[in-house]
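Lab notebook: predicted structure, single chain.

Context: the supervisor wants predicted structures on file for every construct in the current expression panel, including those that have not yet been purified. This is the next one on the list. No modifications to the sequence; it matches the entry in the shared construct table.
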Amino acid sequence: MSRPRSEAEYLARLIPPSASATSMGRRALLKGALGAGAALALPGFLAGCGGSSGGASTSGAGGGASGALSGTVKFGSNYSDAVPKKAMQAVADAFTAKNAGVKVALNTVDHNTFQENINNYLQGKPDDVFTWFAGYRMRFFAEQGLIGDLSDVWGKLTGFSDAFKKASTGDDGKQYLVPIYNYPWAVFYRPSLWKAKGYTPPKTLDEFKALSAQMAKDGLVPVAFADKDGWPAMGTFDILNMRINGYQFHVDLMAGKKVWNGPEVKKVFDVWTELLPLHQPDSLGRTWQEAAGSLQTKKAGMYLLGSFVAQQVDNGADLDFFPFPEIDPAIGADAIDAPFDGFLMSAKPSNEAAAAAMLQFLGGKEAASIWGRTDPTNSLANSEADTSTYSALQKKASEIISQSKSIAQFLDRDTRPDFASTVMIPQLQAFIKDPKNVRTILDDIEKQKKSIFVS
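Prediction complete. Output recorded below exactly as produced.
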């Protein structure tokens, strides 16, 4: 699985270099990107999407079916890796088993390709239902009228906390996403390797550094690292910022309310600069899957990533994790990134009744239970789901999420897409390439932030 990437990265590809964030406000930037997306030819992989599927439909987005369901639900899926692809198929099969008159046509697309083309996809003829993510990504498309209102579906769902419902809600107070799972970001390691070496999880930054130094002496890469796709380094920044400055500062920084070139953020990058030599070198040319391979082959001792890393490391059989250690005792270590994923409906589904019914099924405990049995790498969103088959890793992931006092969605979900793509991705990569240039980098980020976060 490639970790979900947002419309932010797609916008970066659409906006020419001359149209930098420093000279364009939010509305102009997003409007220009949408217009550019509409003018582009749809990629070949989308040619089979949309179109008439027959069957019943209702007049209001998110409406339920009246009478027997029929026809086809066209389903766009970015679950292209083996484990989530199998889970998605299992859930789709369960839905059709209960609704014999309905066929689910899964349109599975490479994960990154799906994200990079999402804007074209939604403005063309999108599938009736498709995979996506909570946070600003979802609200962005809801504001543009590109996805369907699922408030009626939510009226029939149970087992979700208020936090899940809130994160599935647009700025207009309507629900647009049905969650399936979430996953914590933490430091993952191979217990068999650690037992052989006598390592124990560190609780402070000094202990983390000492452990890393010992790993280096033992011939290991202390921390596996990759940032070819631009998003993994965001997770490192998130956790360091929350450990050093606290959750609320992090949230305010993402909202454009704090300065990037002040002493607080400078300290984050100072600490990161100290830690970079402990990380796998040449990260800008490596994918997260390739970095996970270093953990799999026991060439690396640790990896800070989401729990989906288990898909690349023995499917979690020999994998454990610990929260990134405390840096400031006054702040502690009880804040994490734990983003969640789910399903959306297009604004004008070709078979709305069946699409709404499938979304209601996807939000139920049966679908969640099936997913949990098939994909042992995530924590199920629905509290009514059967967790008896949870692996030790899943149980621990659920515990750390429930015990965390503060949960962030991830940098490119917690901030605006234009800021995440046109500013943070290249600037974080510039820092990784030359950490000595951090002062100039932070000044540039702040300058661009002031232009983007305008009222």
